[in-house]
Amino acid sequence: MTEGTQPDGIEADSAARAAVVELLGVLAYGEITAFERLAEDAKMAPSVDEKAALAAMAVAEFHHFERLRAHIASLGVDPADAMAPFVAPLDAFHRHTAPSDWLEGLVKAYVGDGIAADFYREVAQHLDPDSRVLVEEVLADTGHAGFVVDTVRAAIARDPRVAGRLALWGRRLMGEALSQAQRVAAERDALSALLVGGLAVPGFDLAEIGRMFTRITEAHTRRMAALGLAS
Protein backbone atom coordinates (compact mmCIF):
# COMPACT_ATOMS: atom_id res chain seq x y z
CA MET A 1 0.00 0.00 0.00
CA THR A 2 1.52 3.31 -1.05
CA GLU A 3 1.79 6.28 1.26
CA GLY A 4 -1.40 8.29 1.55
CA THR A 5 -3.68 5.49 0.32
CA GLN A 6 -6.33 3.65 2.29
CA PRO A 7 -6.80 -0.12 2.40
CA ASP A 8 -9.96 -1.39 0.77
CA GLY A 9 -12.21 -4.43 0.67
CA ILE A 10 -11.03 -7.50 2.55
CA GLU A 11 -7.79 -5.78 3.56
CA ALA A 12 -9.70 -2.90 5.17
CA ASP A 13 -12.04 -5.28 7.01
CA SER A 14 -9.08 -7.28 8.30
CA ALA A 15 -7.23 -4.17 9.47
CA ALA A 16 -10.30 -2.77 11.20
CA ARG A 17 -10.97 -6.09 12.92
CA ALA A 18 -7.36 -6.27 14.10
CA ALA A 19 -7.65 -2.78 15.57
CA VAL A 20 -10.82 -3.75 17.45
CA VAL A 21 -9.21 -6.91 18.82
CA GLU A 22 -6.08 -5.05 19.91
CA LEU A 23 -7.99 -2.31 21.69
CA LEU A 24 -10.32 -4.78 23.41
CA GLY A 25 -7.33 -6.94 24.31
CA VAL A 26 -5.43 -4.15 26.04
CA LEU A 27 -8.59 -3.01 27.80
CA ALA A 28 -9.40 -6.52 29.00
CA TYR A 29 -5.95 -7.04 30.44
CA GLY A 30 -6.10 -3.57 31.97
CA GLU A 31 -9.38 -4.43 33.68
CA ILE A 32 -8.20 -7.75 35.12
CA THR A 33 -5.01 -6.13 36.45
CA ALA A 34 -7.08 -3.27 37.89
CA PHE A 35 -9.19 -5.85 39.71
CA GLU A 36 -6.07 -7.51 41.12
CA ARG A 37 -4.48 -4.20 42.09
CA LEU A 38 -7.55 -2.79 43.82
CA ALA A 39 -8.11 -6.02 45.74
CA GLU A 40 -4.49 -5.88 46.88
CA ASP A 41 -4.70 -2.17 47.77
CA ALA A 42 -7.78 -2.88 49.89
CA LYS A 43 -5.45 -4.59 52.36
CA MET A 44 -3.95 -1.16 53.15
CA ALA A 45 -7.32 0.44 53.90
CA PRO A 46 -7.43 1.95 57.39
CA SER A 47 -11.04 0.95 58.09
CA VAL A 48 -13.53 -1.77 57.17
CA ASP A 49 -15.75 0.73 55.33
CA GLU A 50 -12.84 1.89 53.20
CA LYS A 51 -11.75 -1.69 52.58
CA ALA A 52 -15.29 -2.48 51.40
CA ALA A 53 -15.35 0.57 49.12
CA LEU A 54 -12.14 -0.48 47.38
CA ALA A 55 -13.35 -4.07 47.13
CA ALA A 56 -16.51 -2.80 45.40
CA MET A 57 -14.34 -0.93 42.90
CA ALA A 58 -12.41 -4.15 42.26
CA VAL A 59 -15.64 -6.07 41.63
CA ALA A 60 -16.78 -3.46 39.10
CA GLU A 61 -13.49 -3.80 37.24
CA PHE A 62 -13.88 -7.58 37.12
CA HIS A 63 -17.36 -7.27 35.65
CA HIS A 64 -15.92 -4.99 32.97
CA PHE A 65 -13.28 -7.63 32.24
CA GLU A 66 -15.97 -10.28 31.83
CA ARG A 67 -17.86 -8.18 29.29
CA LEU A 68 -14.72 -7.47 27.27
CA ARG A 69 -13.67 -11.11 27.34
CA ALA A 70 -17.10 -12.19 26.10
CA HIS A 71 -17.05 -9.63 23.28
CA ILE A 72 -13.60 -10.72 22.16
CA ALA A 73 -14.75 -14.34 22.12
CA SER A 74 -17.80 -13.34 20.07
CA LEU A 75 -15.40 -12.09 17.40
CA GLY A 76 -13.93 -15.58 17.13
CA VAL A 77 -10.71 -14.66 18.94
CA ASP A 78 -9.25 -16.35 22.01
CA PRO A 79 -9.34 -13.62 24.71
CA ALA A 80 -6.04 -14.86 26.15
CA ASP A 81 -4.40 -14.42 22.74
CA ALA A 82 -5.86 -10.92 22.41
CA MET A 83 -4.49 -9.92 25.81
CA ALA A 84 -1.08 -11.59 25.47
CA PRO A 85 0.77 -8.72 23.70
CA PHE A 86 -0.13 -6.34 26.51
CA VAL A 87 0.86 -8.42 29.51
CA ALA A 88 4.49 -7.29 29.62
CA PRO A 89 3.96 -3.52 29.08
CA LEU A 90 1.06 -3.24 31.52
CA ASP A 91 2.79 -5.35 34.15
CA ALA A 92 5.86 -3.14 33.78
CA PHE A 93 3.73 -0.01 34.23
CA HIS A 94 2.26 -1.35 37.46
CA ARG A 95 5.68 -2.38 38.76
CA HIS A 96 6.95 1.16 38.15
CA THR A 97 3.92 2.75 39.83
CA ALA A 98 3.34 0.50 42.84
CA PRO A 99 1.76 2.68 45.58
CA SER A 100 3.55 2.86 48.91
CA ASP A 101 0.42 3.46 50.95
CA TRP A 102 -3.37 3.68 50.93
CA LEU A 103 -3.59 7.24 49.66
CA GLU A 104 -1.19 6.66 46.77
CA GLY A 105 -3.29 3.65 45.80
CA LEU A 106 -6.41 5.79 45.70
CA VAL A 107 -4.73 8.50 43.63
CA LYS A 108 -3.48 5.86 41.20
CA ALA A 109 -6.97 4.35 40.88
CA TYR A 110 -8.46 7.78 40.14
CA VAL A 111 -5.73 9.62 38.24
CA GLY A 112 -3.65 6.86 36.66
CA ASP A 113 -6.59 4.80 35.46
CA GLY A 114 -8.31 7.99 34.32
CA ILE A 115 -5.44 8.90 32.00
CA ALA A 116 -5.46 5.44 30.40
CA ALA A 117 -9.25 5.55 30.07
CA ASP A 118 -9.11 8.91 28.32
CA PHE A 119 -6.62 7.55 25.79
CA TYR A 120 -8.62 4.41 25.03
CA ARG A 121 -11.87 6.39 24.86
CA GLU A 122 -10.33 8.66 22.22
CA VAL A 123 -9.22 5.67 20.15
CA ALA A 124 -12.61 3.99 20.50
CA GLN A 125 -14.32 6.85 18.66
CA HIS A 126 -13.06 5.22 15.46
CA LEU A 127 -14.33 1.69 16.06
CA ASP A 128 -17.53 0.06 14.88
CA PRO A 129 -20.63 1.17 16.86
CA ASP A 130 -21.02 -2.00 18.95
CA SER A 131 -17.36 -2.05 20.02
CA ARG A 132 -17.37 1.70 20.67
CA VAL A 133 -20.40 1.49 22.94
CA LEU A 134 -18.86 -1.40 24.88
CA VAL A 135 -15.58 0.47 25.37
CA GLU A 136 -17.38 3.61 26.51
CA GLU A 137 -19.44 1.61 28.99
CA VAL A 138 -16.53 -0.24 30.56
CA LEU A 139 -14.53 2.99 30.81
CA ALA A 140 -17.37 4.89 32.48
CA ASP A 141 -17.05 5.91 36.13
CA THR A 142 -18.06 2.98 38.31
CA GLY A 143 -19.63 5.42 40.78
CA HIS A 144 -16.68 5.39 43.15
CA ALA A 145 -14.87 8.54 42.02
CA GLY A 146 -16.64 10.57 44.68
CA PHE A 147 -15.35 8.21 47.38
CA VAL A 148 -11.76 8.68 46.22
CA VAL A 149 -12.06 12.46 46.00
CA ASP A 150 -13.67 12.77 49.42
CA THR A 151 -11.13 10.45 51.05
CA VAL A 152 -8.08 12.19 49.61
CA ARG A 153 -9.43 15.67 50.40
CA ALA A 154 -10.19 14.61 53.98
CA ALA A 155 -6.63 13.29 54.37
CA ILE A 156 -5.22 16.60 53.12
CA ALA A 157 -7.45 18.51 55.53
CA ARG A 158 -6.09 16.44 58.42
CA ASP A 159 -2.47 16.85 57.30
CA PRO A 160 -1.80 19.45 54.59
CA ARG A 161 1.71 18.07 54.12
CA VAL A 162 0.17 15.07 52.37
CA ALA A 163 -0.77 17.27 49.42
CA GLY A 164 2.80 17.84 48.26
CA ARG A 165 3.69 14.16 48.26
CA LEU A 166 0.50 13.16 46.45
CA ALA A 167 0.92 15.95 43.89
CA LEU A 168 4.37 14.59 43.00
CA TRP A 169 2.88 11.11 42.80
CA GLY A 170 0.19 12.36 40.45
CA ARG A 171 2.80 13.92 38.16
CA ARG A 172 4.74 10.68 38.09
CA LEU A 173 1.59 8.75 37.20
CA MET A 174 0.91 11.19 34.38
CA GLY A 175 4.34 10.71 32.88
CA GLU A 176 4.28 6.93 33.21
CA ALA A 177 0.73 6.57 31.88
CA LEU A 178 1.34 8.73 28.81
CA SER A 179 4.58 6.90 28.06
CA GLN A 180 2.76 3.59 28.35
CA ALA A 181 -0.09 4.70 26.07
CA GLN A 182 2.34 5.97 23.45
CA ARG A 183 4.43 2.81 23.68
CA VAL A 184 1.45 0.49 23.34
CA ALA A 185 0.15 2.38 20.31
CA ALA A 186 3.57 2.52 18.66
CA GLU A 187 4.22 -1.20 19.11
CA ARG A 188 0.85 -2.37 17.77
CA ASP A 189 0.42 -1.83 14.03
CA ALA A 190 -3.38 -1.89 14.00
CA LEU A 191 -3.73 0.65 16.82
CA SER A 192 -1.13 2.89 15.20
CA ALA A 193 -2.96 2.77 11.88
CA LEU A 194 -6.21 3.61 13.62
CA LEU A 195 -4.65 6.63 15.32
CA VAL A 196 -3.16 8.12 12.17
CA GLY A 197 -6.11 7.34 9.92
CA GLY A 198 -4.45 4.46 8.10
CA LEU A 199 -7.61 2.36 8.11
CA ALA A 200 -10.67 2.74 5.93
CA VAL A 201 -12.40 4.37 8.88
CA PRO A 202 -12.08 7.95 10.08
CA GLY A 203 -8.90 8.20 12.17
CA PHE A 204 -6.64 10.82 13.66
CA ASP A 205 -4.16 12.72 11.58
CA LEU A 206 -0.84 13.58 13.18
CA ALA A 207 -2.04 17.03 14.25
CA GLU A 208 -5.08 15.46 15.88
CA ILE A 209 -2.81 13.15 17.88
CA GLY A 210 -1.21 16.24 19.38
CA ARG A 211 -4.62 17.68 20.20
CA MET A 212 -5.66 14.35 21.71
CA PHE A 213 -2.75 14.35 24.16
CA THR A 214 -3.55 17.97 25.01
CA ARG A 215 -7.11 16.93 25.90
CA ILE A 216 -5.78 14.06 28.02
CA THR A 217 -3.44 16.44 29.85
CA GLU A 218 -6.25 18.90 30.50
CA ALA A 219 -8.47 16.13 31.89
CA HIS A 220 -5.62 15.07 34.18
CA THR A 221 -5.34 18.64 35.47
CA ARG A 222 -9.05 18.65 36.28
CA ARG A 223 -8.80 15.36 38.16
CA MET A 224 -5.87 16.58 40.20
CA ALA A 225 -7.78 19.76 41.06
CA ALA A 226 -10.77 17.67 42.15
CA LEU A 227 -8.46 15.89 44.59
CA GLY A 228 -7.15 19.20 45.87
CA LEU A 229 -3.73 18.64 44.30
CA ALA A 230 -1.59 20.79 42.05
CA SER A 231 -0.80 19.24 38.70
Mean pLDDT: 85
Low-confidence stretches: 1-7
Overall body shape = globular
Overall helicity: over 70%
> What is the radius of gyration?
18 Å
- From the N-terminal CA to the C-terminal CA, the straight-line distance is 43 Å
Number of helices: 10
Report on the biggest sheet.
none
Number of strands: 0
H/E series? HHHHHHHHHH
Structural class call reads mainly alpha
- Beta-strand fraction estimate: under 5%
Brief synopsis:
The protein has about 230 residues and is mainly α. It is built from ten helices and no strands.
What can you tell me about this protein's structure?
- 77% of the residues lie in helices and 0% in strands.
- It is an all-alpha fold and 231 residues long.
- α1 runs antiparallel to α2, α2 packs antiparallel against α6 and α4 runs antiparallel to α8.
- The longest helix has 33 residues.
- 39% of the residues are buried.
- The N terminus is likely disordered.
